[in-house]
Design brief:
Number of helices: 14
Largest sheet: 7 strands, parallel
Order of helices and strands: HHEHEHEHHEHHEHHEHHHEH
Shape: globular
Structural class: alpha/beta
Strand content: 5-15%
Radius of gyration: 20 Å
Helix content: 40-55%
Amino acid sequence: MKKLLVLLFIVFVATVNAQKTLQERLGFSKDAKLLILHADDLGMSHSENAATFYGIEHGSISSASIMMPTPWVTEAANYQHDHPKADFGLHLTLTSEWNYLKWGSVAASSTVPGLLNNHGFLFASVDSVYKSATAAEVEKELRAQIEKAKSLGIDITHLDSHMGTLFGRLDYLKVLIKLGREYKVPVLLCKPIFKLAFHVDLDSLTTDKDVTLDMIYMAYPPDYKNGMENFYTGILKSLKPGVSEIIFHVGYNDSEMQAATIGQADYGAEWRQADFNFFSGDKCKALLKEQNIQLITWREIRDKLVRGN
């Protein structure tokens, strides 16, 4: 009888938790507007790192993610050593998209040949990855990136995907979700966005134990042309209750970033400076306060919901 009562209690608790919103599961009210302000591409360059660190310390950036194959990754790792509460995930990387700034795999090239072009670099386009790399090769490379991060002492708070490469092929996405569960870190997932952008029904891939955000926002070329401040202001003024994330890329429009992104205006040096200007400035802080938006981190999600600390 006692065992039956315990079982019924567990079922009851699980049912109640399943009915709660994500913000309620995190300990906030149902009408709370929670937001992760997330900077991608740490490790790409010193300019990228320096701008992100400034935005964390003086601006409104609450989270960032590191690209493990990139040349400035140790600087990002050392920053977290000195700032152990910094919310750093992994921007799992299967592409090398810039014209002259290139990188290869973390795994031995002989073990992931389908991920590499004739010059030994990761492919520049997502389509090329899809045409060439098996899910087994992808898993081998992702594990290598995660293990390298751990070896550098990075406290991984979450996993996401550079250029969305892991989201658009179902077998890749299954690998990503599996690794998130195995390493006990949340994965960037959002049901409406995945349905709209990638034609993926996350209900068939996830359980109640997996964390899925309510909404993800990111600027695209038309938004940049209309002004970054206008775009981000519009998001903050219309944000709904729930847990959302804005993804952006901060950097300084200096000679290093200009050289790194030469020949590509989209997400280039000027774009990253515009992102930096907004998310390190006072207007963003004022809007967050005005709209009663609470910034949170992936670390909170990991520790409260995935690891149950």
